[in-house]
């Protein structure tokens, strides 16, 4: 999806094909494999295109094996594309990797970039030298990151003695010591408890607001996406299924909506008449009623106003559709289309 400003990341027709060894069956097949190995192409990413604007936080989601981690590795310069083009922070990642890495930060789940037996501050100083950050600037940035991440009390602790949540905070700080333009986060909250996850999400929002850092986040925890990203990319079997605002996908794939009312007194008339034929009402308690309707035909605010005009309402809620249910539906639809095509 094009952005209004010059993009921080531009991807065009990106492809990645691996050569995969296919074993033959049985002892005879094993002997033949010793003489002549058989390889087959595996297309992990197939013609993906998108742009990410400066300061945007974008969620990249998909099931296991969808191609999202392969895409992220090509964006960071770890893998060389088989086809297509990438430009990130003004560089072609796999061709200008040494210069490029000075402008990006990356956190890959539970793989730490800190030295296991060193104190956190020593790892920070080593990373500072690698990225060419002078001692004065490094000290200022550590103090700045401490104000956001509260890592001061952890600086002199060996990395191996940190809890997972503490280490993730330090890893995120390490990825920002050189103030990168672009941040790549692969499962940044994996393995963390609810409190730690909320802390990491809050930190990422602060970093984005404070430094206008562009970020691409891959995760299986869709709460990360809902709380951090206004836009998502959905990838499955190497192809891009959706690129757009999170609200748009909710509207397109979750038309069925609910209005829940708690009343102060029982309705005096027929509640089924409120909203017209497109609204189905059901009573869920002595004074609780739920309306089910298609938001493409009836706007939720219009139905809410009609209910408030007719009923003695104590409380009103329009629950948002579950993002897990929506994404699951998209995957099922995608699988059904592939099945129909293959058959």
Q: Give the ordered list of helices and strands.
A: EHEEHEHEHHHEHEHEEHEEEHEH
Shape: globular
Uncertain runs with pLDDT below 50, 5 residues or more? none
N-end to C-end Cα span: 32 Å
CATH class of the largest domain: Alpha Beta
Count structural domains. Answer: 2
Number of helices: 11
Radius of gyration: 25 Å
- Give the DSSP E fraction (strand runs of 2 or more residues): 25-35%
CATH architecture of the largest domain: 3-Layer(aba) Sandwich
Strand order of the largest sheet: 5-6-7-3-8-9
Mean pLDDT: 85
Question: Would you mind describing this structure in some detail?
Answer:
With 343 residues, the chain is α/β, with parallel strands linked by helices. It has 2 domains: 7-13 and 52-250, 3-Layer(aba) Sandwich (Rossmann fold); 255-317, Alpha-Beta Plaits (2-Layer Sandwich), CATH 3.30.70. 37% of the residues lie in helices and 27% in strands. The chain has helices at residues 26-35, 68-76, 97-100, 120-131, 135-149, 164-175, 194-211, 222-228, 246-253, 300-310, 323-342, and strands at residues 7-21, 39-53, 57-61, 83-88, 104-108, 182-186, 214-218, 231-236, 239-245, 256-263, 280-283, 288-294, 313-317. Strands 5-6-7-3-8-9 form a 6-stranded mixed sheet, with helices on both faces. A 4-stranded antiparallel sheet has the order 11-12-10-13, with helices on one face. The longest helix has 20 residues, at 323-342. The model has no long low-confidence stretch (mean pLDDT 85).
């Amino acid at each position: 999806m094009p952005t209004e400003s010059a993009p921080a990341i531009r991807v065009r027709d990106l492809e990645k094909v691996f050569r995969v060894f296919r074993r033959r069956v049985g002892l005879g097949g094993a002997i033949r494999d010793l003489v002549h190995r058989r390889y087959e192409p595996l297309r992990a990413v197939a013609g993906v295109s998108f742009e990410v604007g400066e300061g945007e936080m974008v969620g990249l989601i998909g099931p296991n094996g969808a191609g999202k981690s392969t895409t992220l590795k090509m964006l960071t310069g770890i893998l060389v594309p088989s086809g297509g083009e990438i430009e990130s922070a003004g560089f072609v990642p796999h061709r200008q990797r040494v210069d490029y890495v000075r402008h990006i930060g990356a956190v890959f789940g539970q793989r730490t970039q800190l030295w296991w037996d060193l104190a956190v501050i020593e790892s920070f100083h080593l990373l500072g030298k690698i990225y060419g950050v002078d001692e004065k600037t490094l000290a200022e940035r550590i103090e700045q990151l401490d104000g956001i991440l509260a890592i001061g009390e952890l600086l002199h602790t060996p990395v191996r003695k940190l809890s997972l949540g503490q280490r993730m905070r330090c890893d995120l700080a390490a990825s920002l010591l050189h103030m990168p333009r672009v941040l790549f986060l692969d499962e940044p909250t994996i393995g963390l408890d609810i409190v730690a996850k909320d802390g990491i999400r809050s930190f990422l929002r602060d970093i984005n607001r404070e430094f206008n850092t562009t970020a691409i986040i891959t995760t299986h925890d869709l709460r990360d996406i809902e709380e951090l990203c206004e836009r998502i990319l959905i990838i499955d079997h190497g192809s891009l299924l959706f690129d757009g605002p999170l609200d748009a996908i909710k509207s397109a794939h979750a038309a069925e909506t609910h209005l829940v009312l708690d009343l102060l007194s029982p309705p005096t008339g027929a509640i089924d008449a409120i909203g017209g034929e497109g609204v189905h009402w059901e009573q869920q308690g002595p004074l609780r009623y739920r309306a089910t309707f298609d938001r493409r035909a009836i706007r939720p605010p219009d139905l809410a106003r009609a209910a408030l005009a007719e009923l003695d309402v104590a409380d009103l809620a329009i629950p948002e559709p579950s993002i897990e249910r929506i994404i699951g539906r998209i995957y099922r639809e995608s699988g059904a289309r592939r099945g129909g095509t293959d058959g």
